[in-house]
Structures are given as C-alpha cells and as structure tokens.
Design goal:
By secondary structure, the protein is of the alpha+beta class. Helix content is 31%, strand content 25%. Helix 3 packs parallel to helix 4 (131-144) and helix 8 crosses helix 10.
Length: 410
C-alpha cells in the first residue's frame, strides 16, 4: 500500500560540527520565543534558522524568513556544513529517555514516502487541523524545496521485519549522529545501506497502511505542494515510521482550560455524570492517578483554591457520534460535556497539569479538565474508520529532533 523508498539524505557534516546537540532543534510548533533565542545563540548553524527563523521589521516579499531559510540551506551545503549522502539509503533513528523513573527507548525508520490523498486509505490522518500552520509550512516548502523535519507516523507489523533490522543495526554499528535535547533525551542515527535490508524494509512497509501520529499540517501541506508542482519530485515526503507493536513510545494527554463561573460549572458537571468532590493541595498532581482503569469516561476537574472533582460519564451516555470516534474520552469531553452540557465551544490547551492548575488559581481560567491519554489502538481504529479526532487529542513523547536528516525534493 505505502510506497516507502530510500533517499539521499542531507545531514550535518561531522568534520565541521563537533556537537550535534548544538545544531538540532525541537519541532517548530513547540518552540517558544525564548527557546528560539537560545537555539540561535547555540550555533550559527542551528537548524531553527531554516525551519523556524525569525521575522524582521524590514521583511518584504524578496527578503523574509522563508527566503533566508532557502539561502541558509544553499550556503550551508556549499560550505559543507551540510553534506548529502552519495546514494539512496534508509536511516535508523532511536530515542532513549526516562519517564516516571523508567528507562525507555523506541526506534523507527527515516524514509521517503509517496504522498497519497487521504481518500486512498494508504496514509491515514487521525486529527483535525488548522489553516494557519499549513500556510506557514507551505511558504517554507516553496522556498526551500526540501523537507526540513520528518512527519512522525506509525504502522502495525507483528512480523517485525523492519524492527529487527533496526535492532540489529543499533546493536552492531556505531551511530553517525548522537544528540541530546533540552529534556535529556538521547537521539541516535544510523545508516541502513545493505541492499538486502533496504529491500526487506520496502517490502514489509508497502503492504501496510501508515497512520500520521504527529505532523498532519506538514503532510497536508506536502499534498498541496505536490498538486502545485504537478507530481514528481514533490510527490515524496520525509517520514519517521515506527511500529506501534513495539514498546517505548509514550502517549500523553493534552489538558483543557475553560472559562465558566464555579456555580454553573458544578451544576453542569452534575448533569453530565457522576461527580466525586476532591480536596487538592496546590500543585499536587496526585489526583490524576485516580483517572486510569475505569470503565466510565473519566476526567479530573480543578476549579481552584484546592477544590476539584472526578467526573465519570457512563459509556453510551453520549449518542452524538457513533463508532470508534464517539467512544473516545476526548470526544465525550468536547461534544458532550463542553458543548451539550456546559454550552462551551472556546477553550485553551495545556500539557503541564501543574501549570494548568496554577492558571486556574490565578483566575485566568475557571477550571481545568484533565484526561487520560489516547491509546494507540484508539488512534488506529479512528483512522481506519475514516474519522478525525479533535485537535490535540494525542501528544507523543519524546519529540523527534529537527536536523537529524533533511530530504531534498529533487
């Protein structure tokens, strides 16, 4: 189904760059203004200057952050800061990290994948997208004619052909790139050059659908760019492909913040389901351990000043959407609790539970809602059913580093 091919990747020259941590960067959409300044100061060749450069007051049509991105890419290639591999290969990518006191690791493959419309059922989305990020990524793609960062995707293969090749590569060969991100996660890159291994990977993956985990905006942008360019060479996109049958990948929830008076909040929650009051110490996230393992759709709610709740909505109570999408916690929260019961369509997102609680205590929001993470099986079922989850239904951790490998569209 999916056409997965090796490619001549562009990567930083180890003879010019002593520390790859200085030139790589997180995905553009999680970089704050302060973090961007830090990345700029870390190295004059940090990839952020291409992927997510600064705007200037004197920018115009011929001189702006997109044209500067293109010029940086050309200059760094000309000066051998960036080098291009001389033949098409695959790249093995590993991230080692700690989560809740455990050492975890997951691996995947960096490859070029043929772009397909979602209607073909080969590349499948799972989340809704917004137009503004797509416009930004399209401008960058037009200017650079390159994929600067990979789309994070998943596939399902109990046979583990590619997984075993990645394991064998990591155990027997030295990585060509090692880097550490700001959260202490260790990133490693290997070259997969053996023709038999390359063929085995392509054969396994061509029989499987691909699920976009992180990078919907970039994929839709690449699809639009391919239509502009009328096909090749813009009909391929850089992807990271991980087997969802493997352990090590962590899915985290993104929490919601709403503006609502406390009286209206509590009365509405009682209409929505079974409500259990809680007393919560400032900054204590321990109550989140009460959410997993229940048959009901379960949410934590914090309304400030140490007051909180566990809200349980029985399965089947929400009838508005059928199938896998209607059974998700995040769907029940958005469509039933927020829209039907509380009459809310406007809310904010926050990953960090402590920050979310603090914003409620500071009266910036009326309440914070906390969710269990969406499971990989749920993502797959929704995607195969041809539906899309609400935005920010999933947050995969850790994030891939931008700058490990680039893909030139030629």
């Amino acid at each position: 189904m999916a056409e997965v091919t090796p490619f001549r990747g562009i990567r930083y020259n180890p003879q010019k760059i002593l520390n790859f941590s200085d030139v790589t960067a997180p995905p553009y959409d999680i970089i704050s203004s302060e973090e961007k300044e830090q990345l700029y100061s870390r190295s004059p060749f940090n990839i952020v200057q291409i992927d997510f450069g600064k705007d200037r007051d004197d920018d115009n049509e011929s001189n702006n952050r997109y044209t500067r991105a293109s010029q940086n890419l050309e200059d760094w290639l000309a000066s051998n800061i960036l080098i291009r591999d001389d033949r098409p290969i695959f790249y093995g990518y590993e991230i080692e990290y700690r989560m809740k006191g455990q050492n975890l690791r997951f691996r995947g493959l960096l490859a070029r994948v043929r772009i397909e419309p979602f209607s073909a059922g080969i590349i499948l989305p799972h989340e809704e997208t917004h137009s503004k990020p797509k416009a930004d990524r399209l401008n960058l793609l037009r200017a650079t004619e390159a994929n600067i960062s990979p789309i994070f995707s998943l596939y399902s293969s109990p046979q583990r052909v590619t997984s075993r090749i990645l394991e064998d590569t990591a155990e027997k060969r030295a990585p060509v790139v090692t880097a550490e991100d700001a959260l202490g996660c260790h990133h490693r890159l290997w070259l997969i050059e053996n023709p038999d291994e390359v063929r085995a990977v392509s054969e396994e993956l061509k029989a499987l659908p691909v699920f976009i985990a992180d990078g919907h905006h970039r994929y839709e942008t690449s699809l639009e760019y391919m239509m502009e360019r009328k096909g090749a060479p813009a009909d391929r996109v850089l992807m990271f492909l991980a087997n969802m049958e493997e352990s090590g990948l962590t899915a985290l929830p993104t929490h919601r913040l709403i503006r609502l008076e406390k009286g209206a909040l509590e009365s509405g929650l009682r209409r929505a389901g079974r409500l259990s009051p809680l007393s919560i110490l400032p900054g204590d996230e321990g109550f989140l351990d009460l959410l997993p393992g229940r048959e009901a759709h379960c949410f934590g709610v914090y309304s400030g000043s140490g007051k909180g709740y566990i809200l349980e909505v029985e399965p089947g109570r929400y009838q508005g959407i059928s199938g896998p999408l209607g059974r998700l916690d995040v769907t029940v929260l958005h469509r039933y609790v927020f829209e039907e019961v509380l009459g809310i369509t406007d809310f904010a997102y926050e990953m960090n539970p402590t920050k979310a609680m603090k914003m409620v205590d500071e009266h910036r929001f009326g309440a914070a809602f906390f969710l269990n993470p969406t499971r990989l099986q749920e993502l797959r079922d929704v995607a195969l059913d041809g539906k899309r989850m609400p935005p920010k239904s999933t947050y995969f951790f850790p994030k891939l580093l931008t700058g490990m490998v680039l893909n030139r569209l030629d």
